[in-house]
Structures are given as C-alpha cells and as structure tokens.
Amino acid sequence: MANIAIVGAGIIGVSCAAFLQRDGHKVTIYDPLPPGEACSFGNAGSIGPGSVMPISTPGIVRQAASWITDPDSPLWIDWRYLPRALPWLARFIAAGSRPRISGISKALRFLHADSFEHYRTLLGVDAKSLLHVSGQLYLYESDAAFAKDALGREIRAALGVRSEILNSDEIRQLEPSLGPRFARAVYLPDSGHCSNPHRLVTTIAESIVRNGGRFVRASVKDFEQDAGQVRAVITDVGRMPCDRVVIAAGAWSQRLAGRLGLKIPLESLRGYHVMLPMPETAPKRPLYPLATKIMMTPMENGLRVAGTAEIAGLDAPMNERRAAALGRIAKRYFPGATGEPVSIWMGHRPATPDSLPVIGPSPRHENVMLAFGHGQTGLIGGSTTGLLVSDLIAGRKPIIDPYPYRTSRF
Ligand SMILES: Cc1cc2nc3c(=O)[nH]c(=O)nc-3n(C[C@H](O)[C@H](O)[C@H](O)COP(=O)(O)OP(=O)(O)OC[C@H]3O[C@@H](n4cnc5c(N)ncnc54)[C@H](O)[C@@H]3O)c2cc1C
Known about the structure:
This protein is of the alpha/beta class. The chain contains 13 helices and 21 strands. Strand 11 (220-226) and strand 12 form a beta hairpin. The longest helix is centred in the C-terminal third of the chain and has 17 residues, at 378-394.
C-alpha cells in the first residue's frame, strides 16, 4: 500500500483521499486552508445526475455578445484580463460545436449518473441529512424561451435522463414558493441537492482523519522529481516524501501541473452566491430559471442564490455588485423573499474549455494522478472522480471509461 499525497482539500481532494483510504493506502491531504473553504464551500448544492449540458453550446458567442454590456448578466469579462483569457476562450467556443457537445454530454452523464450513490458510500449515516433527491426544476418565462432550449431536452432524452414538462399551474402546485412568472418547466425527478456543501466536505475529511489519514495545513510549492517519478512534495513547511501524488487543487491546479511540465488550459470561472433568509414558503428543491442562469437552493441555513460566470483571473478582488444582483433577481421570483442578504461569497470554478475535468495519470510522471477542472459541476462529479482515481491507482477495471477525461486531449 502506498503513501499518497493529495494536494487540495476541496470536494475533489477529499473524495479521492476517502476512496484511496478505503483501498488501504496511507493518505495525507495538503491544503493551506481548512477542508472545503475554497470553491467547494459556496456552490449551489445542485446534485444533478441529469446535468449533462456543457457551458459552451452552439450559439454561445451570440448569447455572450448580448450579455457582455450588462453588468448584472450571467457572464462578465474583465477587459484587462481578456488578453490572458483569449486562448482559453477560443478553445471554449470551439468546444461548443454540435458534434463535440454530444461526446461531452455523454462523458458528463457517465461522471454524474451515480453521484448520490457514491457519496452515500462515503457518508454512511450522515448522507440522510446532507443529500436530498428532491428533484430540480428548470424554469422558463415564456413558451418561446422553452422552445429555444430544445437541444438540452433532446440531449437529456438521448442519454436516458428522466424528465417531465410542466405548465404554469403544475409548476405552482409542485413549488408554491414561486410567483406566477413561469410558463413552463422541466422537472428532473432523479436530481436533487446537498443542503450544506461545506459540511459535506468537512464530514468526509473528518472521517478520513478518524480512520488514520492526515491533514496538513500547508501549501504545495513544487515537487521533487527523479527518473520520471515524483518522490516528495515540497511545501511551505518542508519536504514531504510520498510514493504517489494526486493533484486536486481546483482552479490553482494549473500552476502545480506547470511545475511538472504540463500545459493544461484551466481558467477560473468566478461565481457568486448570496444567502437570503428562507422565505416563509420555502422552496423544496433547486430552482433554475434559464434566463438568468442562477440556481436557488434551500440550504440548512437559508436560501442560497448562486450563479454568474466572471472571467477576471484568480487574483482580482470580489465584485460585490455581482453578488448583490443575485439577491435582487431572486426576489423577483419569490414573492415571500423579503429579508436582506445575510452573507455574500465568491469562488473560483476550475474550468476547462470543454466543461470536462482532467482525470487520469500525468503523461510525464507515472506516479502522479490529475483530478481537477470540474468547472460548474464539481460537486456532482466529486464522488465518482474519487472512485475513478482509486480504481486507476489500484489498476482495477475503472467504474467509468476514463478516456474522455484524459490530459492528452489538450
Ligand atoms: C457560484 C458557484 C455555484 C456552483 N454550483 C455548483 C453546483 O450546484 N453543483 C456542482 O456540482 N458544482 C457547482 N459549482 C462548482 C463546484 O463548486 C466546483 O466544481 C468544485 O467545488 C471544485 O472542487 P475542487 O475540489 O476541485 O476545488 P476547490 O474546492 O477550490 O478546492 C481546491 C483546494 O486546493 C487548495 N490548493 C490550491 N493550491 C494549493 C497548493 N498549492 N497546495 C495545497 N493546496 C492547494 C485550495 O486551497 C482549495 O482548498 C459551483 C461553483 C460556483 C462558484
């Protein structure tokens, strides 16, 4: 059994560590932050086995052009950062062609289909309070908007995702918290949510430590390399020998992969959330109005309104205006949401141009495994990623075909 260093204590790092520990490996997780304090802290909590659409789809350029002048739109680009983002954006647009999205959606379906089941394996009794197969509603304000989204329905149906189409009366019956704004909805009964994504990560991390794993508050700066292998991680608190490394450092993984001579296109798609006091009539499930692309999810501690994609790099400060806009939009949908925002948050989605993560061995170092780039669906993909990484390290038949997530596609 190996001594494995896992870099990053987000949902991906802890899922990998937990499955590796179940195989009998000695795991040490390195992170300068406590578990689950970066992007995995504040996501929308959506766990959707039926979330199969990539971000880039046919028509993305036209749609983005209509948003770009609106500071509250679902997408915003900091013009000062644009020259650095251009190569990534070019690949992002190319990934949205019709022939490519069929393959991408299929790979997302494989990664997401059994998300709940694999989290239950890791969580045991805690699964009951954290995971909810509550269904999800994709909402449309007009029949025309519904018609425009036909491609999503076509792809989900082709991949066997169960769904029902609802009219405005049926929407109100299912979700009395909503105002009368929506004409149509797609109901995904097998999807649902996690009611506290931060507690999900800390619960898994605590069980790893209880079972003899280690968590070290340290930043990995480099790797000691010898004859095509990494022999130790070099951290800000010293050199730590290891037999294997898993790089799961979210949006910061590109910098670490760069130390190993790998060039992987990874961009931070910054997103925001605002927490509102729960409206008197609380929503029962994640609600997703496609016009604004925000997700509104009932959490343990209030209503979370999360969304927007902002391209401005890892170092720019948070734009509080974008978070406040989310709260204003949500109040349009929930007549009962009258309270003022309780908190705001910004996080870095680790995004590849084709919306698929990189999962698999490094082409240059046989004892390094890469597990990052889950973009907008890292919570959904986390548990299966952990299992896949453990299968690949064990040399077992992998739970899903790892080919679509290979590093060499870039
Ligand atoms: C607004 C918003 C809403 C979202 N909603 C959803 C959703 O509903 N469903 C869903 O599936 N996904 C959602 N996501 C995406 C999801 O949150 C991410 O894909 C996921 O959290 C990524 O997990 P991670 O472990 O890769 O990264 P992170 O959680 O960011 O963890 C990476 C960790 O690596 C550490 N690290 C970085 N550099 C180093 C280093 N040098 N040494 C050691 N450690 C290091 C960091 O400190 C961090 O703790 C959303 C994201 C946002 C922003």
